[in-house]
Amino acid sequence: MEKLYELICSSDNIVFFGGAGVSTESGIPDFRSRDGLYSLNYKYPPETILSYSFFVKQPGEFFRFYRDKLIHINAKPNQAHVTLAKLEKQCKLKAIITQNIDGLHQIAGSKNVVELHGSIRRNFCMKCRKPYPLEFIMQTANIPLCECGGMVKPDIVLFEENLDEKALRDTVKYISAADMLIIGGTSLQVYPAAGLVDYYTGDKLVVINKEETYASGMADLAIHGSIGEVMGGI
Q: Of 9, 15, 94, 171, which residue is the least packed, with the fewest Cβ within 10 Å?
């Protein structure tokens, strides 16, 4: 913790790259843990349901799963979210790169957040592109339809879809320029997102995760523990 504090104090261009572990402490299950979505039994595996082809072919089943398992409307930011927002206000943290779709970083007060996999809080009509809030999805009984008749799709990256090009460009830009990169709450197993951390060339690489990742051995500081507890102790 002392080393982490020292590194933060000596940096003024910090970038945070986070994954599902940042949100599990807010009560949002991840995909790959023993109690995560991948361990649950459904008629179809989550990887199939959360694919673009399944979304198009069986939207009713997709939205039933989506509302039940991916939307956690009562989730609140935890200490990791709060500390990162504080570091941004102090002009130390320049960007948050997140693989999460819950929007908790923004709720905590962070402004510059790159959402690699989109957000449940943005939705749009696939026909006329009209935007819709999360509440519209929640209040619709089955398949959410626009007033023009088009189907409303959550602005999230499904399996078989490419990452947003602007999000990718911004991520490369921020990580490449960072004087300190903190990787937290991610197993670094989801590609191509995980490979983006390789653009960091500095000497203040910090990995905070409950389990080892491929980046742990390369890190200047690796902390195995709760991301909320660690960030909350700064």
A: 9
